[in-house]
Amino acid sequence: MSVVGAVAGVLLGIAALLVCLRLALGPSVLDRLVSMDVLLSVTACGIGAYAAVTRDSTVVPVLVVVSLLGFVGSASVARFIPRDAPQQPKPARSRQPRQPRRPRRSRR
Fold it and tell me: Residue 22 contacts by C-beta under 8 Å, 6 or more apart in sequence?
């Protein structure tokens, strides 16, 4: 099991380094947001691999907190990111002259 844990640790470390590179070089805010979400996912995978290798269940609440942090953070930041493409203006309606209303009849 120690070989599997070492291989998983090395692969997750390489993934984390590549994601950090993308986080630093990302040309837009959305790229940085996605890379931060992937970094939190890699962290959650690392915590899960540690829990599996050591058979330690006390880190499961930490795993849940990291997962919720990733979800809530991505959802809240994505809500406030402006769209890249400008929205098309609505076509103007042709204004027709209003017709006068008829007077209401009384109900007597």
Answer: 31, 35, 38
Mean pLDDT of the chain, nearest integer: 84
CA diameter of the chain? 94
Residue 63 burial (C-beta neighbours within 10 Å; 0-12, 13-18, 19+) = middle
Q: For 34-80, what is each residue's pLDDT tens digit?
A: 898 999 999 999 999 999 999 988 999 999 999 999 889 888 887 77
Q: List for the chain the helix, strand, coil content (%; round to 5).
A: 70, 0, 30
Question: Which residue type occupies 80?
Answer: F
Q: Could you tell me the two tokens for 3?
A: 């070989």
CA 10 to chain centre: 26
In the block, which residue shows the tokens 């929205």? Answer: 87
Give the C-alpha distances (Å, rounded to integers) separating 106 from 32, 94, 99: 67, 35, 21
Q: Tell the residue number behind the tokens 């590179």, with chain if given.
A: 21
